Amino acid sequence: MKRQLLIAIMLTAALALASIAAAAEPLASWNDGQAKRAIVDFVQRVITTGGADFVPVPERIAVFDNDGTLWIERPMYVQLAFVLDRVKALAPAHPEWKDKQPFKAALEGDLKTVADGGEHALLELVMATHAGMTTDAFARLVKDWLATAQHPRFNRPYTELVYQPMLELLAYLRANGFKTYIVSGGGIEFMRPWAEKVYGIPPEQVVGSSIKTRFELRDGTPVLVRLPEINFIDDKAGKPVGIQMHIGRRPIAAFGNSDGDLQMIQWTTAGPGARFGLIVHHTDADREYAYDRQSSVGRLDKALDEAGRHGWTVVDMKQDWKRIFP
Amino acid sequence: MKRQLLIAIMLTAALALASIAAAAEPLASWNDGQAKRAIVDFVQRVITTGGADFVPVPERIAVFDNDGTLWIERPMYVQLAFVLDRVKALAPAHPEWKDKQPFKAALEGDLKTVADGGEHALLELVMATHAGMTTDAFARLVKDWLATAQHPRFNRPYTELVYQPMLELLAYLRANGFKTYIVSGGGIEFMRPWAEKVYGIPPEQVVGSSIKTRFELRDGTPVLVRLPEINFIDDKAGKPVGIQMHIGRRPIAAFGNSDGDLQMIQWTTAGPGARFGLIVHHTDADREYAYDRQSSVGRLDKALDEAGRHGWTVVDMKQDWKRIFP
Questions:
Q1: CA of B136 to nearest chain A CA: how many angstroms apart?
Q2: What is this structure's pTM?
Q3: CA dihedral B79, B83, B86, B87 (to 10 degrees)
Q4: Rounded distance, CA B261 to CA B274, Å?
């Protein structure tokens, strides 16, 4: 046992030194400003033992929207780019798609016609590309696609178009005993295959929209088959519902960027004790994109008004972030 | 920093000593027999770095059924006792229940008539007692009920009628880097209010059946309201579906006691690498109950056959457990 103890002590010393190094500059890509100060102030208050705002570790739950909060969502949601590429890949087996909307428009890259079809058209494309295979097969499709797909403007894989300041924020919260969750309108099984590697968020801490699955024995081997039927939409008023379903307790901090995150931030910040709400405002057309009240993707209108009313922190991307991407 | 380092080293030493003490007798209430040996053998194989069966910590996921696996399920599911008591508590506001089935039978404690009404009758009782309030209010109802309700035979609170050997098993797995989950046919929000205190399992590691909820602003305050509508049944073929939804990866160990756990154990043990399936066989009418193939509650028939076929471990409660309850 003596050697094990020695190893444990050495490990601890190493970890302590590492955390000292990290603590020296936990949010290196954030400019010193109101947003950074508000984050650090909140974290210090909830971790201070004996302080009025102390929160025990198990209750330090932080929830993050994904699209536009942790990674890029322009010119279109990344998952929509995946859908369009999957339609193209599957087209040879579906000759009828050449003359059938919304598939025709998807094949021609005619996003306007796809958008004009509304939710119904989008749903048709999602079901044709996301259902009919096992959960394992779908995870492989997502991983394979992300390994080669590139963003049309930045010519980099989407998994490199995550926000460096937010990666630092995730790490800073975890270093202070927080459990970090994704709570996204995007597909839960679209995010899980890469969220652990890219964000350090394991599959069980990803909440998202989903289709139904069915358990089957195929030649004696159990599989889960993805069905063309909506199970849950984790957006807007669905976000607090998804949080309760998966986490079962109210977060103390919520991070979003659009009106789709409004109810999640309301739910989070309405609890007792210290609470934190933050909105990423896309203000940087040069380094990323600038959009808010009039945008069709990631519209930030009501939530921006509510942020002012409730004292939520608003990140001005252009002012607050030294770098955007890693 | 020097003092912090010293504290860290002392903490580690203390933890190391504590784990040595615990390791001396990790499964004290288990008799030395095949079941205990199979558990220890499995755990040692998956934690041995460099071994053929080594499993990294994040993938050490273990799932446990609740009723009949972690706590008592006879003479009726504990949640059904809660339902019946709630019907009685609500009866003064529902004079019509005196002449209306299945409420009449529930009020008279006539379980046979309730059972004869089948799933539909049960569902009516559940909806009348589980819906219509906020999630916070429901959690309080559960906690208040458990604080006073007693088991009719053992005259002890239900939370004391958990299986001591299984508590030790949960602790042993966690001490070896496992994340322990409940995956139960019971209500997810019926288990969460007490699972952390009784089992050491936090709300986010509880998977169960659920009704739908709706986000509302009541006088500006956000609430989640429980609706009289089934959301998900986490039983039989639903258990692997619930596991995928909440955990997003396949467990490596599954523990159950009835045919309701069959698919969960199939799904768990069919994965690659070291896998473990275990079934608690209720064989002890003196100290608890004895039931299996013919039982209406917790029937163990197909799963017992499958256990033999696949080499899952079967616990003989009478032979394998020194004590039943704490």
A1: 10
A2: 0.93
A3: -170
A4: 19
